[in-house]
Amino acid sequence: MSISDPSAAQTPLLDDTIDGCLDYKGRPVRRSSSGCWRSASFIIVVEIAERFAYYGISSNLITYLTGPLGESTATAAAQVNAWNGAASLLPLLGAFIADSFLGRYCTIILASLVYILGLGLLALSATLSSISSSGGQNADGIALSSSLQFQVILFFSSLYLVAFAQGGHKPCVQAFGADQFDTQDPEECKTKSSFFNWWYFGMCAGTLTTLSILNYIQDNLSWVLGFAIPGIVMVVGLVVFLLGTMTYRYSVKGDEESPIVTVGRVFILAVRNRKKSYSAIAAEEEARGILATESSKQFKFLNKALLAPDGSKEQGEVCSIREVEEAKAVIRLAPIWATSLIYAIAFAQSSTFFTKQGATMDRSTATGFEIPAASLQSFISLSVVLFIPIYDRIFVPLARALTGEPAGITLLQRIGSGMVISTISLVIAAVVEMRRLKIAEEYGLLEKPNVMVPMSVWWLVPQYALYGLADVFTMVGLQEFFYDQMPNELRSVGLALYLSIFGVGSFLSSFLISAIENLTSGDGRDSWFANNLNRAHLDYFFLLLAALSAVGLTLYVCCTKYYIYARWGRTF
């Protein structure tokens, strides 16, 4: 909840009050009785609930589309990609609404209510049965009943309602949680870095629970129950979130214009003043007493926004130096965002082709139980859950002692480390796939795609585990980076930009797969993604992704050399 400055905010502050924050009644908030882990714990619970609900839908969505709704595999895959992409891009809209109008607290509550409504409607759509034989046709040309047509409409309306709610929920919850730690206090700033670690730990714990329990319920018991349980969990999460209301720190929001409008005005004024000389900028900076810094020298063309287009300096006609620096902070993020896209493309493969690999291999255990291929994704979450405590409690203190960095290593170093690990994982995936193809050939299974390849599925564990380890570095690092490097008023937008990396990455992955499919399937040849995986070449694809990741990593390192960290309000 962003609170407009009330008269209470003008009262004398106590020694332990926090600048820029109020309590739930609009009074100056005390450090000793608010924020930090006492508040963040409530917020992490609602995030665990949301991730449980989201992955309860997304992890098994293709099964529902090809099962009860009767879609073809190709159509279902396209629907899943489109929904995942939309769900990752909508946070840009949700963050804009939160930072410009409603505030984070109110946006979280509203988004949670819409989330619960969407999940309830999904459960309702699953209860509908098709009895009538009249109606249209599905993707495969099979006649649909009118009741099934209504079910499909209701299902997809509910599905995108959930995506819309996630768009408001996702960037605001994490930003609101990080807001509970004061960056002007060195100890709380260190704790905030741990918050991002344990935040991702909670996310993966919720995902691991979903993959372990909810998918089994959906496949073997009831889809109605499988969609209803996430709704119940979201209700519980919202109640827990509301219980923490009196302990939260709420950022002060005055009557000033939207920060997005402010940043936009900087670019507009810089363009309008494009013909003005840099000597005029230097004179203006000297008149304002602005000292030359490394930041002021970068993207110097934006400094032209300090000048009035007509020579006057009326209110609103020129930008302040802080507004110019905020615009520079936004533009500095663009190269990091772009060079992280290749990591997002690689990330998208864990739920598709890794699963396809596992489906052809020996998945039986000593007890005779056969591991579902989709459940192999749980090794990513398990790897995260196991490694984050090691990272936070062992690696960070040791690295801090060596480097002096509060978080052990810089955020850009953390992100780059995960990219290296991801590249290694793709190479291992290619080697395992080569081994699988060789065994299939040795046993004469090249033309028998439905026969199990006598190779244990446990060979896939290293690539899944390394993906989880890469997430600990890159995924968590990107979250904290895009939050930390944005001005306070734009931090929800910053986290939305982080999420958009994976939305755009999902679309780029689909485009890359389609392009390779068209290039490699001509003249009667089997494509790299042939339905018969024993004739396909996923190993080539994994090696291509590894090469692209290496190129992306090189570009990323080049960009980091010119990056200047923003230190919004820090005193150290």
TrEMBL record:
Record field: transmembrane: 105-128, 148-165, 198-217, 223-243, 330-351, 371-391, 411-432, 464-483, 495-516, 540-564
Pfam families to which the protein is assigned, alphabetical: PTR2 (PF00854)
Any one GO molecular-function label of the UniProt entry: tripeptide transmembrane transporter activity
Membrane protein topology class: Multi-pass membrane protein
GO CC, one annotated term: plant-type vacuole membrane
Key words of the record: Membrane, Phosphoprotein, Transmembrane, Transmembrane helix, Transport
Protein name per UniProt: Protein NRT1/ PTR FAMILY 5.10-like
Organism: Gossypium gossypioides (Mexican cotton)
